[in-house]
Every structure is written in C-alpha cells, then in structure tokens.
Amino acid sequence: MATPIIECVANCSEGRNIETIHALAHAINTVKDVSLLDQHRDFDHHRCVLTFAGSSEGVAQAALELVKTSTRLIDMCQHSGQHPRIGATDVLPFIPLDDATMSQCVDLAKSVGKRIGDELEIPVFLYEEACDQSYRKSLEAIRRGGLPDLASRMESDPAWLPDFGPEHPHPTAGAIAVGARHPLIAYNIVLNTSNLAIAQAIAKVIRASSGGLPAVKALGLELKTQGLVQVSMNLTNYRNTSLHVVFEKVKEEAEQRGVSIKGSELVGLIPQEAATQAAAYDLKCDSLDSDHILESRLRHYQKDNLD
Amino acid sequence: MATPIIECVANCSEGRNIETIHALAHAINTVKDVSLLDQHRDFDHHRCVLTFAGSSEGVAQAALELVKTSTRLIDMCQHSGQHPRIGATDVLPFIPLDDATMSQCVDLAKSVGKRIGDELEIPVFLYEEACDQSYRKSLEAIRRGGLPDLASRMESDPAWLPDFGPEHPHPTAGAIAVGARHPLIAYNIVLNTSNLAIAQAIAKVIRASSGGLPAVKALGLELKTQGLVQVSMNLTNYRNTSLHVVFEKVKEEAEQRGVSIKGSELVGLIPQEAATQAAAYDLKCDSLDSDHILESRLRHYQKDNLD
C-alpha cells in the first residue's frame, strides 16, 4: 500500500439509537477502498465517533455518504446530550497517516466542505489547519454555546458566516465543522463521584488554556446513567503530554478532593507509540519504545519489501 | 506481503567486542529478503541477541551465514559470562509470524540444524517444538551446567547424542540448540542491590517451575560492571502472565527484602499486545487493547486491500 492513507474521525450526534449508528457505519462501509476502523458510542454524551481510513477519494466519498445519512436520520431539534455540539454530523476532521500530507487533508476538507454546503445545504465551518482565520480556527470557538449560540452569531455577525453552504443552520442537521488536523487522543477519566463541580475544577486545572498541561483540552461532564462524572479530554500532542502524565495529574487532583479514579476510556484509536510510552513509564523500562515493538519493526520491513 | 514471515532470535556468545557483533549483524544483512529487526548486547551476560525475519528460505540462509561467522570469530575456550550457554551461536529458534505455521518452523529448524551439523560440523540439539524427546525438549535441560556439562553428557550418555553433526563439541564453537517456538518476551528487572542471593531468591519465587507465576522462567544474575543484580526472565506466554504482573510481583518481593527496583529492560522485541496490556493496566483503561491501536487496525485494512 504505497498510496497515502487519510483518516477521518467523524463525530455524530447519536449515541443511543443503535439502528441509527448502524446506518451511519453502513454508509461508510458501502464505499470501496475505505475501511471503518473503529466505532465508539456514549449514551450520556449522546454521541458516536466513527473512525475510517482509505484513499483520499474513498474517504471523501464515505464522508459525504455519512453526512447524507446523518442528515436523514438525526434531528438536532430533538437532541440533548452532555457533549457540546452544533450538528447531526458534528465534527469531520481529516488526518494524514503514513505518506499523506497535511496539505492533502486541507484540500480534502475544503472540497468535501464545499460539496456538503452546495449539495446538502448544510453550513460548513472549516477548522484547525483548514481554517485561516485565527478567531474561529479552534473547535471550541465554533462550538461555543452549542448550535443555538452559533446560529445567533451567524445571524448577527458577518465574521461568523460559514465557509460553505447557506447562511442559516440546516433545519434538522444544524451545522458542521470540517477540518484537517494532526492525530489526537480522545481520553476520558471517570471519577468515583457524582459531583460535577469536581470534574469541572480538575478539567480547569489541567487544561492548557488555563495554564495546565501542554496540549491538553479538558471538560468536566456528567455521566447521568452511571451517577458519575468524568474529565473528558483531547490530548493534541501525546509526545508533549502523554497519557500517563495526564492520568497521574488527574489522580493527584482527584485525591486532593477526596475522590478516587474509577477508570479511564479511549474514544476511538490511539497511536501505538502513545500506548508504548505509558507502558514504559510504569515498567521503568527505557528500552520499551516503538523500535522494540515487533509489529512496528515488521511494518518497516514489509514497506521496504513492497517499495 | 502475503508470504509467511518467519522470525529468528539468535543468541550469540559475544556481548563485548563490537566488531564481532557488527560482523554477525552483517552476515544477516547480506542475505536478500531478510531484515535485521533488532540487535541487543549485554556486557555482563557477554551475549548478543539478533532478531531477524523474512521468508523461510531467506531466514534459513541468514541463520547459516550467522553460524558460519560466529564459528569463525567466537572461541568458546576464551568465553566467560554471566549467562548460561553451550556455543558460539548458542540458541537459534525459529518463530512463526503472520501466516507462518509452527510446522514450517519445525521443518526449518530440522533442515537448518542438519546443514549446521553436516557442513559446519557443530553438534546440534533440537529443542522445544522441534524436539520429540521430553527429557531434552527445554533449553534449560540442554544448557544445564553449560558446555562442559553437556560435553560430558554427550561423552557418557547415549541419550545425549546430538540430533545432527559430530558426537563431540566443536573445538571452538561448542554446540548449538536449534528450535521452533512460540514468541516469548525476554525481560530483565534490575534491582538496587549487589546481593546476588536476593535476585536468585526472587527468581525462585516467581519462576513457574517452582510454583510461581505461570509461563515465567527466571534466573538471578550479577551485573558486575554496574555493581547490581537482575532477575532475568523469559515470559513464554504474556497472555497468561503479563509484563505488569511480573513487574508488580518482583517489586513486591524486592520490597519485602528491603530492595527497590532500578528499572527494567527488554531483550529484543515484544508484541504490541504485550505493551498495550501493560499500559491498560496502569491507566485502568479496559478499552485500551490491540483493537484500539491505530497501526494495528490499519494493518488489517492494508492486508485486506492487498489480498
């Protein structure tokens, strides 16, 4: 496989209706040369995350099919959930893997975004590497206050007109953030408490934007069905701040508040290096790195023999 | 790469002379369709471990070239080291990866073993899956007492005639154990003490053969140059007993003896699943498994698209 591989990690606003989630996955699976690598759903977030990869053309096609299906099946007027969101397909980032480049992903975000705007009549906001305007480059800026707040900014402020598509939210599908970004790790730590204020306080301490850990975004969220709360995070550069550093810091902050950690969970996939890093730390094993992972070494061997 | 891949983890009795180790690595690298995946050396063990992989024919050829080179450059009469051993190339196991089978590896061990015996005149003892006689199936049985002890058993006991080659050890290269086996993890934990009795006592507690942890072999060894000792282990089934279970147990046993752990080290490569397992344990993260490692998922995708 010498062609560049592009990954898409689509976040859709459905975490409860299994049939709908199956239909979303099916929309991706029908496209040739694309593989659905992972699906994750969360009842409390009322959200699912579909990770797929393939050629640039394949991934573009699968992304469009997914947005079509989510527009048909998900009604944002009926939606409620713990996670901030602006649309049925809420976030659609393209990520370069292997030999792919960020510039290919930026081009892809723009061409898929244009088709979503033109053909499906959903307003599209480009984000991260696909966006040139600093004030709306981050997902947090676009999603601030959720769909109602975005809708009123679109109405009242020309700086918030979408990059593609109509000037008003789609009546049921809302809006979509389409972007290009580096790989990130979506990682949640569940606390043994139902006190949301504790999760929010810890999130504030650890997030980079309030002077916490570098390359960490964090929110405190309720898990109503479990009677617990979680610190929900994105680690945007695990080489900068790794899983175990985040885990130890959240554990320490929780203990200071008299709370223990119930467990942690990944949303979607993580790079092998990130898991290896965490194992090496706990085993005090300096020699445990990607160069000592059999599959990683074999992959290089196989690449050499295919090229 | 749809052809079966076979791995060989050759252990040679040279951990000090860098030129010799380079020559051994070079012998492998000259063979087409074979890749040297890792090299590890240990001064105190006076031993190096060369991990390579490729097609059955390629790996057979590289193994022979390696044994030829070690026979030319290593003299067992001059050798001393902490690790038990019987020959210049001491252990030569073949391990099935990907689509390869154990039966292919058994055949390979026998054909390479026969050529080593016939062409290089070094006695060969088949071991593990390549050996049908239970009393000499394990490496420990063959290596008991090192080369001098094996030599006297060969002399006095017909049950200890080699599978291939001459009835007496080679004057400089000694003997070789050639086998077929499942993947294992060679893993050492270094203790903050120079007291060898402590490492030996812990090794005895944890090794499977004395009722310790399943699928664990363990020795206490001195690291003279560091003034420390280590528990040197093979984990023959990490799904049964994983890295973190071993680490925690050795830590506990060491602490009971008033000793802390300095660190741990891998010899050669480990399967990605084993590293992931250790990370998941420490992060209390049930969802962290091989199915959530990006490269692992992509590998399946790429295989599907190549087949």
Question: Rounded to an integer, what's the Rg of chain A over CA atoms?
Answer: 20 Å
- Please indicate the percent range of residues of chain A in DSSP E strands (runs of 2 or more): 15-25%
CATH architecture of the largest domain in chain A: 2-Layer Sandwich
Helix content of chain A: 25-40%
The assigned structural class of chain A equals: alpha+beta
CATH topology of the largest domain in chain A: Formiminotransferase-cyclodeaminase, Chain B, domain 1
Q: Say what oligomer this is.
A: homodimer
The CATH superfamily of the largest domain in chain A is Formiminotransferase, N-terminal subdomain
Care to describe what's here?
Two copies of one chain form a homodimer. The first copy, chain A, is of the alpha+beta class and 307 residues long. The first copy, chain A, folds into three domains: 5-180, Formiminotransferase-cyclodeaminase, Chain B, domain 1 (2-Layer Sandwich); 185-270, 2-Layer Sandwich (Alpha-Beta Plaits), CATH 3.30.70.670; 272-307, no CATH class. Chain A has helices at 18-29, 56-73, 102-120, 139-143, 146-156, 196-206, 243-256, 272-282, 294-306, and strands spanning 5-12, 34-42, 47-54, 89-97, 124-128, 176-180, 185-191, 216-223, 228-235, 261-267. In chain A, the strands form two sheets. The first copy, chain A, has a six-stranded mixed sheet with strand order 2-3-1-4-6-5, covered by helices on one side. A four-stranded antiparallel sheet of chain A has the order 8-9-7-10. In chain A, strand 2 (34-42) and strand 3 (47-54) form a beta hairpin. In chain A, helix 2 packs parallel to helix 3 and helix 6 crosses helix 7 (243-256). The longest helix of chain A is centred in the middle third of the chain and has 19 residues, at 102-120. Chain A is globular, with a radius of gyration of 20 Å. At the A-B interface, strand 2, strand 3, helix 7, strand 10 and helix 8 of A face strand 2, strand 3, helix 7, strand 10 and helix 8 of B.
